[in-house]
Amino acid sequence: MNMHVSVNDQSVGEIQADALVIGIHEGGVLDGAAAELNDLSAGQLVELIEAGEIAAKCGTVTSWLAPAGLQTPHVVVVGLGDRATLDVRTAAVAAGSAAKLLAGQERQRVVFLLTDGWDQELVAAAVSGAVVGCVGQDLYRAERRVHQIDELAWRTPHAAAVEEGFQLGEATNLARRLVNEPAGIIYPESFAKVAAQLAQESGLELETWDLQRLEEEKCGSLLAVSQGSDREPRLLILRHRGGGRERPHLALVGKGVTFDSGGLSLKPNDSMKTMKCDMAGAATVLGAMQAIAALDLPCHVVGLVGLVENMVSGSSYKLGDVLTSRRGTTIEVLNTDAEGRLVLADVLDVALEQDADHIIDLATLTGACVVALGTDVCGAMTNDQDWCDQVIAAAKVTGERAWQLPMFPEFGKQILSDVADIKNIGEGRWGGAITAAKFLEEFVGEASWVHLDIAGPAFQDKPKAWIDAGGSGVMVRTLVQLARGLAEE
User: Fold this and answer.
1) Distance CA 426, CA 428 (A)
2) Between the CA of residue 224 and those of 171, 260, 319, 344, 376, what are the distances in Å?
3) Cβ count within 10 A of residue 15
């Protein structure tokens, strides 16, 4: 059964469900559903809080079985922390943590009562968090660890926010599922089929460039990366025409290396284990386009993804090769594992032809960004400070983490080549995330552009309380927020 959401206006004592989720704030003052529950249970909730059995600290989750006075056998009490600091991230984490705990076994219906008095933004964030929290990466386990909850019901007057949160959660889960699928399941052609089905269902326009079209378009940089694989490359152009505007507000560009062996610069075994996730940028773009279409945002957005496998064979591209990109820039290859920027070079050139107001690309591009910012923060680099400020502000609104790295001209000198226009790596180990961004900057001209290196947060080795390990769907919600904001300008 597919997951769905609903709105419930019953009192705590009237609700029949597999479980209830109730939130409490620090300070000892209970209101809303928490006060109802305390009255129905003859003060047991306050007693448990005072005894230290239930905590209000942000992110704590406590199971309470068979509380008195209810028709529901299971209550989960979620700590919301200080009421004054409640924000969308707290709301998403709280709801996601409760949903993930309850998803440890099959449940048909869970009613969330933690949104009393919340505004639409908080409600949408909570719903999105819950939708993500009860879906795991265990796609092929005979015995699932995380069971999708059939119905998530919410007590709130903001029905539209519930639907919006559901669509954002579903889009995030699409991106997560694509990342979590094995590379034998998701490869350029099969990714393109997923996109085609999505386009048909959601009303998105889709243009697909196959191998012949890519050759005709002289996408020499992208094609070089793909030539060692038996899987043919693809380039997809998806379009949402909202608001009746001819020129796109926004172009989203995603790196889609569906498996990255490193090519002839072969990765060691441990580094290759998670390289099915190297198409997370493309998955994020597809998820964002799904949400933008589902919410029917009044903006014109185009999404472009370049899809390749980077494999080893007798036809693999080699160190020392000189590639000619679609833009005409020549590139000396000094590391075949610095392949994502080669794919994006040609896709960005196609994006320029869309004449969008702004471009943003997303890629699991460099380990250097993970060294700099860790596994929870995206690196942002730009040629347009005002646009970068908008991107980081949108991330803050959605509770996602992004931090700007500098783009000083000295970094650009490191990618100059003696035998071609540029080379695909910088000089030495230092500043690798920035030299990669300076490489991409060569292909965006004067366009307003931000590059997001999502290598850290796109794939999590360990689960968190509110989300399973594996693909995270990071930045889907931020991209949707950006599209909404641009439409309102």
Assistant:
1) 6
2) 31, 14, 11, 12, 32
3) 19
406-426 pLDDT, tens digit per residue, is: 999 999 999 999 999 999 999
Question: What domains can you pick out in the chain, each with its CATH number?
Answer: 4-156 (3.40.220.10), 173-488 (3.40.630.10)
Closest CA to 304 of 262, 223, 248, 382: 248
Predicted confidence at residue 1, as pLDDT, reads 62
Please say if 341 is a catalytic residue. Answer: yes
Residue-wise over 216-240: b if at least 16 C-beta within 10 A, else e? ebebbbbbbbbbbbebbbbbbbbbb
Contact assessment for residue 388 and residue 334, using Cβ atoms and an 8 Å cutoff: no
Pull the structure tokens for residue 354.
């869309």
Supply φ then ψ for residue 255, to 5 degrees: -75, 125
- CA dist 288 and 203 (Å) reads 14
What angle is formed at CA 278 by the lines to CA 273 and CA 283, rounded to 5 degrees?
A: 130
- Which of 203, 209, 427 has its CA nearest to residue 301? 203
- Give me the pLDDT at residue 382, please: 98
Cβ partners under 8 Å of residue 66, min gap 6: 73, 74
Local confidence band at 429 (pLDDT 50, 70, 90 cut-offs): confident
* 231, 192 contact by CB (below 8 A): no
Q: How far is CA 128 from CA 161, 176, 270, 403, in A?
A: 10, 13, 33, 23
Out of 107, 234, 341, 423, which one is annotated catalytic?
341
Q: How confident is the model at residue 488 (pLDDT cuts 50, 70, 90)?
A: confident
The two tokens of residue 331 are 């590139």
Which of the residues 267, 396, 464, 484 is marked catalytic? 267
pLDDT tens digits for range 26-76: 988 899 999 999 999 999 999 999 999 999 998 899 999 988 889 999 999
What is residue 321's three-state secondary structure?
coil
Sheet bearing 151-154, strands edge to edge: 4-7, 151-154, 109-112, 19-24, 74-79, 61-65
**In the numeric block, which tokens belong to residue 281?**
């940028």
The pLDDT tens digits for 143-183 are 999 999 999 999 999 999 999 999 999 999 999 999 999 99
* Dihedral, CA of residue 207, residue 212, residue 214 and residue 215, to nearest 10: -160
